Amino acid sequence: MSHSHGESSASPNQLKRYDNKLGVVHLPKFLFLRDAVDSVQDTLNFSWAVKDRGWEQFNDSTKPGRVALLSSILSLLLGLHTPFLFSAHPTIVQWSWYMVSLSTFHLLEFFVTAVFHPLRTDPPVGGNAFLVNHSRTYTIAFFIAVAEFWMRKFVSAAFYQVSFHSWRISWFLGICLVVGGQFVRSLAMATAGSNFHHIVQVQRPDEHQLVTHGM
Length: 215
Prior knowledge:
Strand order of the largest sheet: 1-2
Number of strands: 2
Mean pLDDT: 76
Strand content: under 5%
Distance between the termini: 47 Å
Largest sheet: 2 strands, antiparallel
Helix content: 55-70%
Radius of gyration: 21 Å
Low-confidence stretches: 1-27
Number of helices: 7
């Protein structure tokens, strides 16, 4: 896409197509955000390893390089934040629980799929099963959540200086919802087994069975 005098030359049709894909109202002055999101999404899709460096172990989602790197990063995030789950500082506790929940979710998406989804399926279980490159909207939602958390921290510091006793009920309920939701999702994936797929299927595979029991 070409640029002139700091303004985008994207046509209205191009903007409309992107709006439909992203599912948001789009204004020309925010085109730089689109470029930023696309850059992040390309990184999550390992374009830097394939196009720029030609690393064979990252050529597609099923290569071990992607699985090893993603699992290492997610495990590192999980390990770094777990010790702070019961810190004395509410802000650290909230942020740590968020990162632990997020890391656990993405790790379980891969491991539950790998255990209960046969490798004979097309495509085989690979790096995409972590769902870190889920979609542009998912990536945007993540950055909005992070920005909202830290903006409230610095803009309204008093909100985060309350004692544990004043928000322990909502904190406990939130944890229960996260843990319960993750348990139900993982159990449902395990119950569906080979009939589960992260990608919406438009044709019914011959081996697919309708699951009428369990979660």
